[in-house]
Amino acid sequence: MNSDKQKKISDILQRFNRQTSQIIKIIKMIEKNNIDIEWIQRVLRILRNENPPLVLEKCIDKFWDNRQKIIERDLDFFTGGNGAYNKFIKEDERKEWIEGIIDMIKKKQKLLTGEQRTYIWDRLNNMLQCIIEYRIAVGDFK
User: Fold this and answer.
1) Calculated CA dihedral for residues 106, 112, 116, 122, nearest 10 degrees
2) pLDDT digit string (tens) for 65-99?
3) Mind spelling out the 3-state secondary structure of the chain?
4) From 3, 10, 94, 140, which residue has the greatest number of CB atoms within 10 Å?
5) Which pTM does this prediction carry?
6) pLDDT tens track for 28-62
7) How far apart (Å, rounded) are the C-alpha atoms in residues 125 and 45?
8) CA–CA separation, 135 vs 91, rounded Å?
């Protein structure tokens, strides 16, 4: 892989990981001193430094499969209207990661201001954009 392509992939991964961290920060602002959120934030920091592609690679299929829900900002995806969000999450090894983020937002969404909700949707759409760019860069666009 040439250095230009490596730099492009590195930039995509940095943007994706930054968006993930920003979502966690919003949730952390709403629920202070939550051990689970603190742990997730620490793990993200470690992964970002030790294995930058891991977070994106764990999320890539989930985001791709749910791209329409993310683009449309379909709140049912998070609120689980009649368990709706569960049907968007496949049973596989990646389920826990995306389900964990969704559950955090679901549990806190009533406490979010309209501005915070918009901020989260913007971050999710930015993450989706990174996934699209990443798939193109690595030649994995199906």
Assistant:
1) 20
2) 888 888 998 876 665 544 444 444 455 554 555 56
3) CCHHHHHHHHHHHHHHHHHHHHHHHHHHHHCCCCHHHHHHHHHHHHHHHHCCHHHHHHHHHHHHHCHHHHHHCCCHHHHCHHHHHHHCCCCCCCHHHHHHHHHHHHHHHHHCCHHHHHHHHHHHHHHHHHHHHHHHHCCCCC
4) 94
5) 0.78
6) 887 788 787 788 888 888 888 899 898 898 888 87
7) 21
8) 22
All structural domains of the chain with their residue ranges = 3-137
Residue listed under structure tokens 């943007």:
15
86: its two tokens: 């569960």
Q: Which residues of 52-75 are buried (b: 16+ CB within 10 A; e: fewer)?
A: bbebbebbbebbeebeebbeeebe
Overall residue count recorded for the chain in this entry: 142
Q: Distances in Å between the alpha carbon of 88 and those of 17, 135, 141?
A: 22, 21, 20
Between the alpha carbon of residue 52 and those of residues 25, 77, 131, the distances in Å are 19, 27, 13
CA distance 20 to 44: 8
